[in-house]
């Protein structure tokens, strides 16, 4: 019988591994992105549904004389920024949870941190 061949690394030989090469982190980030996408999609579908099936409701003033359409639309814009911030936080948390050599460390200058211009020769 033939033995199973060893798994090939996602990075070329000699290259330093990157956090994106950690498949568990990439999968967790993808799951988080999909969940947040569907949360936002539900909010957007609510807006579109109101506009399609109850347009008179969109004209009702709800906040300081501003109608529901404008208030809901601005809420969607703010919601998109909040969802993006949550996604960034989740990705950072997933990277920290992935212990091992692929987790970025601030004290390692080879992980993409820029040196001040005066320290180029060190």
Features:
122 residues; mainly alpha; two-stranded antiparallel ribbon; elongated; 4% strand
Question: Describe it for me?
Answer:
The protein is 53% helix and 4% strand. About 4% of the residues have low confidence. It has a two-stranded antiparallel sheet. Helix 1 runs antiparallel to helix 3. With 122 residues, the chain is mainly alpha-helical. A hairpin with a 2-residue loop joins strand 1 and strand 2.
Can I get a quick summary?
The protein starts with 22 loop residues before the first helix and ends in a 25-residue tail after the last helix. The chain contains 3 helices and 2 strands.
User: How large is the share of residues in beta strands?
Assistant: under 5%
Given the C-alpha coordinates, what overall shape results?
elongated
Helix content: 40-55%
The stretches of 5 or more residues where confidence is low (pLDDT under 50) are: 5-9
Query: What topology, given as strand order, has the largest sheet?
Result: 1-2
Largest sheet: 2 strands, antiparallel
User: Mean of the pLDDT scores?
Assistant: 79
Number of H/I helices = 3
In total, the number of strands is 2
Task: Using the CA coordinates, give the radius of gyration.
Answer: 23 Å
Structural class: mainly alpha
Q: What is the N-to-C succession of helices and strands? A: HHEEH
What separation lies between the terminal Cα atoms? 54 Å
């Amino acid at each position: 019988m033939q033995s199973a061949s060893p798994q090939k690394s996602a990075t070329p030989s000699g290259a330093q591994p990157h956090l994106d090469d950690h498949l568990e982190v990439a999968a967790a980030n993808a799951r988080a992105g999909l969940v947040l996408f569907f949360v936002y999609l539900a909010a957007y579908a609510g807006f579109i549904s109101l506009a399609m099936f109850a347009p008179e409701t969109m004209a009702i003033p709800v906040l300081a004389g501003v109608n529901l359409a404008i208030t809901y639309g601005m809420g969607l814009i703010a919601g998109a920024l909040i969802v993006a911030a949550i996604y960034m936080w989740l990705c950072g948390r997933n990277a920290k949870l992935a212990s091992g050599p692929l987790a970025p460390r601030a004290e390692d200058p080879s992980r993409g941190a820029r040196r001040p211009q005066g320290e180029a020769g060190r």
